[in-house]
Amino acid sequence: MAEPRPDSAAVKLPPPLTFAVPLLAGIALDRWLPLAALPALPSRVAGAILVAAGLAFTGWARLLFIRRGTTVLPFRPSSVFVADGPFRYSRNPIYVGFIAAYAGIALLCRAVWPLIFLPFVVVAIWQMAIAKEEAYLERRFGAQYLEYKVRVRRWL
Hints:
The protein has 156 residues and is mainly α. The protein has one domain (33-151). The chain is 65% helix and 0% strand. The longest helix is centred in the middle third of the chain and has 29 residues, at 40-68. It starts with 14 loop residues before the first helix and ends in a 5-residue tail after the last helix.
């Protein structure tokens, strides 16, 4: 990965990896040491819905960034402040989408371990990415971002 620029959030680990590694480790662990048998049909239906919703929310936010001409990469500078689309509902719609997709994949696989890991993943993403991104956006966009923080919740 490229070296973080001083005028960026300076997130070092790509956020998708923060989700993918524990998810895959949890699925693998569940194959070797299953904790419980999740019911097949309800788990798979709920999982499919969560994956679809997560990908849609993340994709909507990403598309909006592309249309506005700014980057989705947290180690690059933001050129514009985006507060519409999914950002009207969450300050972190991409992470909300990742969380939903992560939970959905775990349910599709009927794996409990990734669900146990998920709260730790959320704390890790908050510490390693969200806190840095919010500090950067405050520096970069000032009062505009501070007003947005008052108006829009972090999650949903």
